[in-house]
From TrEMBL:
Any GO BP annotation: quaternary ammonium group transport
Keyword flag Nucleotide-binding: yes
Taxonomic lineage from the root: Bacteria, Pseudomonadati, Pseudomonadota, Alphaproteobacteria, Hyphomicrobiales
The keyword Thylakoid belongs to this UniProt entry's keyword annotation: no
SMART domains linked to this entry: AAA
Name the record gives this protein: Spermidine/putrescine ABC transporter ATP-binding protein
Family listed: Belongs to the ABC transporter superfamily.
Record-linked Pfam families: ABC_tran, TOBE_2
Listed GO MF terms: ATP binding; ATP hydrolysis activity; transmembrane transporter activity
Residues in ABC transporter domain copies: 4-234
């Protein structure tokens, strides 16, 4: 049975249904990210799990018990917010010990637990400092220690990294993942940053307009997006219009070039327009190759991005971006040049929804 089980959860603000029939079963020790654009309802789901927001309908079970009617402090949940939200007038140690005090844990048991938490977050010597004497990254680690100190059953993280600069964000997310795995704590993490979600999660829930569009491992979400929305929200993607020329043989055309798809075309008929997805990193430029899994086009732009050179080419009316991995010996294609982009047939995904 799932450890955190969210069933048919709904939230209505006035006339606005912002969370719709949301279902999610999370195993004990799993790290789940809620990923989606601003306003898709991810924070609202998290706040309903925490008890800061009431649900309009549905159930939230933690270890088999419905917590919907319980107040936040009765739910045994730890939460970290985007803004560090530390108590400015308390020291680091007092901040970390705050939840213990609330629970009536004091004396050496509390002191030991605070010391253990400060060690866990890599700040064993900063217990006597005040929040204003810490960097943003350190403050967020203290917020994490404070959330974890009372040994919650579930950890909720609401965009905890978004106020930090890029380098700290990457190192802290790795640290959060290590700590989460070390403690084996069931965790729900809210983010609008797809790279963050892909790098840190066991599974990702991609949310769109209050619903879960797709739930899957980072690998599945990236490689097998089930909807147009997921395909375009996660990663950079070419969405290419193609015409069906022979459904039985999976033959389609892009511009005037025919290609055989790996995936069956299903009920499509001759002349139908379908949408195909192709990641920029899937293709490579080859000299003069031709065949079923190649497209010939004219280079429109070529941008040096450091590790890759992203090039856009025109194939009929379609514009396709592809990446060439940088190396000192590489000569990037020039604008106007005719190039052949080669890929495997299975890299072209049919987007059906
Ligand atoms: P963000 O990343 O911007 O925080 P989000 O995906 O977390 O976005 P929510 O904060 O959950 O989105 O908001 C979902 C929708 O609910 C939005 O349209 C928002 O305006 C609305 N909403 C949130 N809280 C309230 C409220 N207290 N009263 C009315 N509407 C609200």
């Amino acid at each position: 049975m799932a450890f955190l089980d969210i069933k048919n959860l709904e939230k209505v603000f006035g006339q606005n249904r912002v969370v719709k029939d949301f279902n999610l079963a999370i195993e004990k020790g799993e790290f789940i990210s809620l990923l989606g654009p601003s306003g898709c309802g991810k924070t609202t789901v998290l706040r309903m799990v925490a008890g800061f927001e009431t649900s309009s309908s549905g159930a939230i079970l933690i270890d088999g018990k419905d917590v919907v009617s319980k107040r936040p402090n009765q739910r045994n949940i730890g939460m970290v917010f985007q803004a560090y939200a530390l108590f400015p007038n308390l020291t680091v140690a007092q901040n970390v010990g705050f939840g213990l005090k609330v629970k009536g844990i004091a004396g050496s048991e509390a002191d030991n637990r605070v010391a253990e938490m400060l060690k866990l977050i890599g700040l064993p010597d900063l217990g006597n400092r005040y929040p204003f004497q810490l960097s943003g990254g350190q403050q967020q680690r203290v917020a994490l220690a404070r959330a974890l100190a009372p040994k919650p059953q579930v950890l909720l993280l609401d965009e905890p990294l978004s106020a930090l600069d890029a380098k700290i964000r990457v190192s802290l997310r790795e640290e959060i993942r290590m700590i989460q795995q070390q403690l084996g704590i069931t965790t729900v993490f809210v983010t609008h940053d797809q790279e963050e979600a892909l790098s840190i999660s066991d599974r990702i829930v991609v949310m769109n307009g209050g619903r879960a569009d797709q739930i899957g491992t980072p690998f599945d979400i990236y490689n097998r997006p089930s909807t147009r929305f997921v395909a375009s929200f996660v990663g950079t993607l070419n969405l290419i219009e193609a015409k069906v020329i022979d459904p039985a043989a999976n033959r389609i055309s892009i511009g005037d070039q025919a290609i055989t798809l790996k995936e069956p075309l299903g009920a499509a008929k001759v002349g139908d327009t379908i949408s195909l997805a192709l990641r920029p990193e899937a293709g490579s430029i080859v000299e003069g190759a031709n065949g079923d899994t190649a497209l010939v086009g004219q280079v429109m732009t070529s941008n040096f991005l450091g590790s890759v050179i992203r090039t856009r080419m025109k194939v009929g009316t379609a514009v396709i971006s592809f990446d060439m991995f940088n190396s000192p010996g590489l000569t990037p294609p020039s604008v106007g040049e005719t190039v052949t982009l080669r890929f495997t047939a299975s890299d072209l995904l049919i987007i059906r929804e």
